[in-house]
Amino acid sequence: MYIVVIGAGQIGYHLTRALLNAEHEVALIELDSKKVRDLEKELGNIIIRGDGSESRVLVSAGVSRADVLIATTGNDEENLGACQVAKHQFNVGRTIARFSDPDNETLFQILGVDVVVSSTQIILAGIEDELPVGVQAHYLPIRGNREIIRIEIPPRSLLVNNVLESVSLPPDTVVTAVIDREGQLKSLDAIIESHDEVIAMTTSDNTEALREILTGEG
Amino acid sequence: MKFLIMGCGRIGATVATSLWEEGHQVTVLDLDPDNFSRLPSDMRDEPGVTLVGDGTVSEDMIRAGIHGADVFVAVDLRDSRNALAAQKAKHIFHVPRVVCRIGDPSRQKMYGELGLVAVSPTDATSQMILGAVRSE
After folding, report:
1. Chain mean pLDDT for chain B
2. Which of A72, B16, B67, B83 is most solvent-facing, going by the fewest CB within 10 Å?
3. Number of independent structural domains in chain B
4. What domain range includes position B52?
5. Which residues are within 8 A (CB) of A157 and not within 5 positions of it... i.e. 6 or more apart?
6. Is A106 at the interface with chain B, CB within 8 A?
7. Alpha-carbon span B72 to B66, nearest angstrom
8. Does residue A91 contact residue A26 with C-beta atoms inside 8 Å?
9. Which of residues 12-41 of B touch A (CB under 8 A)?
C-alpha cells in the first residue's frame, strides 16, 4: 500500500518506520525544517517538508494515488484539515486522524474521517486490562457513533454456562468474537464460561446496556 | 443579533467593531488579550464583548455564549483553526450562520462545497491588486 503520514513527531516517525518495515511505500510530511533535515539522513527522500493540510504539498507527495492518509500531528485542527483535503480533493479512500481534545472525536466522525484515534483512549484501554473483570475496554470508534468494545465475563454473570442466544442484546449490536481464557477463539453459539472475552460492535449509547446484559448477576 | 467572533486580528477587529457600532451584540474571542487593543476603548470596556479563550475549544465557545449565537465568524490567521472552529460551530453547536476565513483558495473552494461560507482574502486581495495594476 501507499501511505502518506503527516507529522514527524514521535508517533509519526515510529509509525513510518514500522510501515516501511512492513514493506509499505510511505511518504512522511513535516512542517519543521530542522526535523526534516535530521530525518533526511535516515529516511532519504520519503520525507517532505511542508504543511500537510495544504493541497500543493499533498500533490508533491503524490497523495492522489495514496491508499491511506494518517495525520499524526499534535494539532487536532491540522489533522482534521489534512484528512478533509485528502478525502475531498484527492479521493483518498481511507483517512486516519489522531486527536487530543476528547470533544473533537464526534466532530471528526461527523466530518467523515474514517478512523479517529486518541492516545488518551489507547492508554485507558491499556489500564483497563489491569482492572477487575467485567470492565469494558473501548477499542475502536467507528462511523455512525459505533465502537468496538471488549467485555470480560465475570464468574457470577448469569450468562456463565449459557449461550449468547439466551439473552437479548441491545439493538444495533453485533458480537464479533468470543475468546476463552486461554486465548482460543470460540464458536459464537458455544457455552459461555467465566473469564471469556466478548468482542462486540455496538453504538455508544448501548455500551452500558450491553455490559449489564453480559455481566449482570440477576 | 448575537455575533461570536474568533480572532481579534485586523480583520476580526474591523468586522467586530462595525457590527458593534450597528448595535449588534458582539463577543470577540482571542487567546492573546493584547489583540483586544485593536477595538475602540468604549467597546472593549463593555462587559461581555471581549473574552480571552480558544475559539476551537468547546468549553471556551460555550463560555463565549455560542448556544445563543446567531452568527459565528472564524477569522484567526490559520486556515485549519478557522475550519475546525467553524465546523464545530456548525455541526456541534448548530449555529445558524457560520463564516470563516480560508487563505488557501483551493481549500476555500472545498469548504464551500462542504457547506461552510468560506471567504478567501487571498483571492479578494489578488483581484484588487490585479485590478489596480491593470488600470495603470
Report:
1. 95
2. B67
3. 1
4. 2-134
5. A134, A192, A194, A214, A215, A216, A217
6. yes
7. 8
8. no
9. none
